[in-house]
Amino acid sequence: MPEKLCGTPVKSQPLERLLPEGGRLKEKTSRGTNGTSCDVLVDGKLSVALEESHPPKYVKAMKFGLPANPVPIRNLPYKGEGRVDDDNAVVIVPCRTPRTRYLAVRVSSLRPPDDTGAKDLRKNLRDLAVPAAAEIQKEKRCGN
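Structure (tokenized):
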């Protein structure tokens, strides 16, 4: 199991639990003007995505994207807010750089919840997103 996704250190245990059984693991990075996406493919099929973006203004985590059954992530170990839903975990943190004021990190899983159970799926999404957001915040040198 990789210890980094597209250069970002991640916890391997939640990542392993989000990935389906399979052989070949491949990472695919794409960079846009507003952020970066790291797709993890297993045997050529998209399984997990780690996205980092810079919203132009503050967006509440509970409203970021199109959440299905969102629940707040409580007690983040840093300033910010988060939520987890049936397919994603999102963390939004302050990130003061010349380019932006906010950083949004989203982890998405294409694994059906019935494979792992909805509660376990949400826990693994949260356990991957919360430390990944902290790492990306460090990488971006977010001054808060």
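The chain has a mean pLDDT of 87. The longest strand covers residues 45-53.
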